[in-house]
Predict the structure.
Amino acid sequence: MSIQVKNLKHIYEKGMPTEQIALDNISFDIKDGELVGIIGHTGSGKSTLLQHLNGLLKADEGNIIIGDIDITKPGVSMVQIRKRIGLVFQYPEYQLFEETVAKDVAFGPKNLGLSEKEIDERVREAIDLVGLDFEEIGERSPFELSGGQKRRVAIAGVVAMRPEVLILDEPTAGLDPKAHKDVLKMVRDVHEKTGNITILVSHNMADIANLSDKVIVIDSGKLVTLGTPKEVFSKKEVLRGVGLELPPITAFTEELRERGLQISDTILDVDEAVTEISKYLAKEE
Amino acid sequence: MIRDITLGQYFSGESLIHKLDPRVKIIGTMLFIIELFIVDNFLGFLVAAVALGTVIAISKVPLSYIVRGLKPILFILFFTFALNIFMIQGEVIWQWKFLHITKEGINVAVFMAIRLFLLIIGSSLLTLCTRPISLTDGIERLLSPFKKIGLPSHEIAMMMTIALRFIPTLLEETDKIMKAQQARGADFESGNLIQRAKSLIPILVPLFISAFRIAQDLAMAMEARCYRGGENRTRMNEMKFKRRDYMAFALQTLFLGIIILEARLF
């Protein structure tokens, strides 16, 4: 399974005076098993792009090839595509509706037309994967859970469909620091255990830097740059130009480098920074 | 689909009709509705239609836009037409088994259809040419004499304003929830009536919860800004009758006279 996006273009309200180009000539490849981070300013077209990947929006130009199917070709069954590509929207807890957590998580698998046994199995597995306890919350109402738990239940609802591609649109938005950390850990766990492609949109540069194999930067509907986190976050000026910042730890170590500390460039996590700085201090002494 | 409904929507413009005081327009619309029920022959409808046509022409609202808003109520129009045409007794001119059409039936059916048609266009013109805010302001002022008998006119107007304000918000919310459920494999388009009705539950439950959440947030925000109802509340734009408003009143009264006279004479 891989994803290829070629020269994708999308225009909102085409032909109207309020016409707006939301995506312009976007091309990228995603290989099997990759965790891809997408970053961009608010209104840059990230959400529009995500909705194309599972067929909720139709491209005006260009192709999206998922596996061996070009989903932009006419006659492709979007229902089939959505079974393989799970999309978790922003604030997914607002889509919860069932009486119990177990029933809500079962909604997706049920729509796939699976047997009762298979549904039950997948519900348990999904709730477990997102780090919750089925025995404890399975029969409770989703509306009496905490914010972070609700969000994880909602994500479990998509994970239970066992998508080959899991897309998450700002899964940590509006959560407190602990829930934020839990959800991120969950994203990583689900990715590692299922080995699927995961696409993560976030405003938090540190999260993207730590989790992704590949980073895509979008601004005003155009692809600005793409590459490994190291490659992307070494282009400080490019990122600043589109209103994005470096992850805090990277900004800190870059500042140290500017002041003459000889440490390696584009450090993306705290542990690496600690090692580098102690190495430098030891040398100084 | 939902977006096509223009009934109750505002069409922004700068015409004379748009600028009239909302009270004049509300009273005018009510008079027009009463007039349609005074009329008892086709000539009267012709007079009313010409008057309505003139107002539409002055308002500069495209006719196609008004007609598009009629689509959702076309069904009611056909339904009453069919009921009238088959149910009324009289001189039979066509018969098939238990169904029969009478001369009187056709007469009444056409009559009622025209009346409904003018009624709907007339009243939709009110909302097309009046901003929701000024419309509710007008209603508040018109209802204010009834405050003495305990009618909460300000509160009623405020509720209407809020309801109108949140139509687009709830539409957007519905769109979001529908997409989220579609992404979980929900299917709203196929199946029989019962299956389709059931498939609405995953949309309606989150929608209701959202609506309550929005209402609560709004109430909190209003209270934080010390809103406490209409008592002693002043407004930024005071409504004042201008010359054009008195002229419009005069024309409305004149037209009422014509309609009554026409009904008497013919």
Remarks:
- Chain B has a mean pLDDT of 86.
